[in-house]
Design a protein that fits this description.
This protein has helices spanning about 5-10, 35-55, 85-95, 100-110, 135-145, 160-170, 180-195, 215-225, 250-255, 300-315, 330-340, 355-360, 380-395, 395-410, 420-435, 440, 480-485, 515-529, and strands spanning about 30, 55-60, 70-75, 120-125, 150-155, 210, 235, 270-275, 280-285, 295, 320-325, 345-350, 365-370, 375-380, 450-455, 465, 470-475, 495-500, 505-510. By secondary structure, it is an alpha/beta fold. The chain folds into 3 domains: about 5-155, Alpha-D-Glucose-1,6-Bisphosphate, subunit A, domain 3 (Alpha-D-Glucose-1,6-Bisphosphate, Chain A, domain 3, 3-Layer(aba) Sandwich), CATH 3.40.120.10; about 180-445, Alpha-D-Glucose-1,6-Bisphosphate, subunit A, domain 3 (Alpha-D-Glucose-1,6-Bisphosphate, Chain A, domain 3), CATH 3.40.120; about 450-529, Alpha-D-phosphohexomutase, C-terminal domain (TATA-Binding Protein). Strands 1-3-2-4-5 form a 5-stranded mixed beta sheet, with helices on both faces. A 5-stranded mixed beta sheet has the order 7-6-8-9-10, with helices on both faces. Strand 18 (about 495-500) and strand 19 (about 505-510) form a beta hairpin. The longest helix is centred in the middle third of the chain and has 19 residues, at about 300-315. The structure holds 2-acetamido-2-deoxy-6-O-phosphono-alpha-D-glucopyranose and zinc ion. 2-acetamido-2-deoxy-6-O-phosphono-alpha-D-glucopyranose binds near residues 26, 351 and 500. Catalyzes the conversion of GlcNAc-6-P into GlcNAc-1-P during the synthesis of uridine diphosphate/UDP-GlcNAc, a sugar nucleotide critical to multiple glycosylation pathways including protein N- and O-glycosylation. Pathway: Nucleotide-sugar biosynthesis; UDP-N-acetyl-alpha-D-glucosamine biosynthesis; N-acetyl-alpha-D-glucosamine 1-phosphate from alpha-D-glucosamine 6-phosphate (route I): step 2/2. It catalyses: N-acetyl-alpha-D-glucosamine 1-phosphate = N-acetyl-D-glucosamine 6-phosphate.
């Protein structure tokens, strides 16, 4: 390794002395001006990771739903999944090394991770529409080049598109073509095949208004539009030409504030949805004739998809195991509906996509969604192979047709990570096939009133949790206090957890009425101090 060149280039991307950041649940996130050295070094790390696993690695510059002034970076592993946890630690060490320690830290990583420096390295790069993203992705390229890695810069792409590219590349095209065109063709073809079977989509049924958070989603949806016939009537709002990214709009805003985004005029009963800033999350909503706002979050999306999959999996009669993975934030009534009414097993894991993804891999068909709208469906290799085989060979018409439906779903779903564009098409296809209106979908169950609060404490790490973050182990006595508060209300539940992305403690409470959910959340927040 040419440490002289490294030293020279690193000096062009100096680390502010004393600044320490952590590779958290969403990679690095910070004010954009603090990130130049981090992205340069993540370019270095991507090369090392690529050499260690002999595969193409992805690197995405984005801060998702965070304010436009922020930015972030995360690495994507070979099959399009999140960076392996053991390397998250290396990422943190490398980002925080003072200039004179850089060589030592790199050497250590190479030793610990058995990196063979003689191997080739290949990195795919993508970025969101933030003003700071272009320059930061240039610094990523500097880092890659200094270690002699090859790269392909996809420029402006959604986060899930980059995950898709990396997976295509490392599976020799089995997952699809590693181009934007390949992505659009694969998804649009599967979608059109699916809705061919729908008989009940009237004119008004087809319209969908999409709030793109003034981000990358708008650009990519416009690119995709020509792949669809005119009947697919999607209307793009908050396309980034007028307002700031994520400002008073986007999936996170809508979910957190439980109200419609700015910039989108909603008529009663119109179906609308919001993407987040990098288009890996989606939530739906509508306004009823009385003017009340109804949010359809990740839990209800998981429910709709599960209903569809359960029906068609039953038709192919293969005894595939279907399960849903949620986090502690899932509304209690969604869990009850899935388990008791739909009879689909539900599993709860810690917050963060990697935990949900990992758990969902245990089943033939694993549906996972966070309440905030990030999610997808995973099919095991065996299930996918069997379904494709049934499409080709099954003699029984009904079974073969059901398999065909599932095969198109498999192709429409981005199995690498939650993808707002793909999820939207999955939802639109299911609504059309089942002839469901947005109100009927919403009426599957009623969300329990809930409240999310955050509080600043001296050190959020004093809170340690267990049972998928649903119970606090420390500080001593806290869980007992929460238990006593929860007992005061009906249908109630509450938990606290340290945030993985902000210096705060988050509190979640739900109860029979909004007043009670609010009161419970407030009382729990007082118990945290
Ligand atoms: C990150 C996670 C998201 C999670 C959120 C929780 C990924 C790609 N993203 O944005 O899934 O919901 O963190 O944030 O894993 P918190 O720890 O601050 O509550
Ligand atoms: Zn996002």
């Amino acid at each position: 390794m040419d440490f002289e060149a490294l030293k020279k280039y690193s000096a062009l991307h100096p680390k502010p002395a004393g600044l320490a950041l952590q590779y958290g649940t969403a990679g690095f996130r910070s004010k954009a001006e603090q990130l130049d050295h981090v992205v340069f070094r993540m370019g270095l790390l991507a090369v090392l990771r690529s050499k260690a696993v002999t595969a193409t690695i992805g690197i995405m510059v984005t801060a998702s739903h965070n304010p436009e002034e922020d930015n972030g970076v995360k690495l994507i592993d070979p099959l399009g999944e999140m960076l392996h946890p053991s390397w998250e630690e290396y990422a943190t060490q490398l980002a925080n090394a003072e200039e004179q320690e850089l060589q030592k830290v790199i050497t250590e990583i190479c030793q610990k991770a058995a990196v063979n420096l003689h191997k080739d390295a290949s990195v795919f790069i993508g970025r969101d529409t933030r003003p700071s993203s272009e320059k930061l992705s240039q610094s990523v390229i500097d880092g890659i080049q200094v270690l002699g890695g090859q790269y392909h810069d996809y420029g402006l792409v959604t986060t899930p598109q980059l995950h898709y590219m990396v997976c295509c590349q490392n599976t020799q095209g089995q997952y699809g073509k590693a181009t934007l065109e390949g992505y659009y063709e694969k998804l649009s073809k599967a979608f059109m095949e699916l809705i061919k079977q729908s008989h009940c989509s009237g004119e008004s049924q087809r319209h969908l208004k999409i709030d793109c958070a003034n981000g990358i989603g708008a650009l990519k949806l416009s690119e995709m539009k020509p792949y669809f016939p005119q009947e697919v009537a999607i209307h793009i709002y908050n396309d980034g030409t007028k307002e700031k990214l994520n400002h008073l709009c986007g999936a996170d805003f809508v979910k957190v504030h439980q109200k419609p985004p700015g910039g989108l005029d909603m008529k009663p009963n119109e179906r609308c949805c919001s993407f987040d800033g990098d288009a890996d999350r989606i939530v739906y909503y509508y306004k009823d004739t009385a003017g009340h706002f109804h949010l359809i979050d990740g839990d209800k999306i998981a429910t709709l998809i599960s209903i569809f999959l359960k029906e068609f999996l039953a038709k192919v009669k293969q005894d595939f195991k279907l399960a849903v993975v949620q986090t502690a934030y899932a509304n209690g009534n969604s869990t009850r509906y899935l388990q008791d009414t739909l009879k689909v097993p539900v599993h709860c894991v810690k917050t963060g996509v990697k935990h949900l993804h990992h758990k969902a891999q245990e089943f033939d068909v694993g549906v996972y969604f966070e309440a905030n709208g990030h999610g997808t469906v995973l099919f095991s290799k065996a299930a996918e192979t069997k379904i494709r085989q049934l499409v080709k060979e099954e003699k029984d018409d009904e079974k073969r047709e059901a398999a065909k439906m599932l095969e198109n779903m498999i192709d429409l779903i981005n199995q690498t990570v939650g993808d707002a564009v793909s999820d939207m098409l999955v939802i639109e296809a299911i609504l059309a096939l089942k002839g469901l209106t947005v109100q009927q979908w919403d009426a599957l169950y009623t969300d329990l009133p809930n409240r999310l609060l955050k509080v600043q404490v001296a050190d959020r790490r004093v809170i340690d949790t267990t049972d998928a973050e649903r119970r606090a182990l420390t500080p001593p006595g806290l869980q007992e206090k929460i238990d006593a508060l929860v007992k005061k209300y009906k249908l109630s539940r509450a938990f606290v957890r340290p945030s993985g992305t902000e210096d705060v403690v988050r509190i979640y409470a739900e109860a029979d009425t909004q007043e009670n959910a609010d009161a419970l959340a407030h009382e729990v927040s007082l118990a945290v101090f």
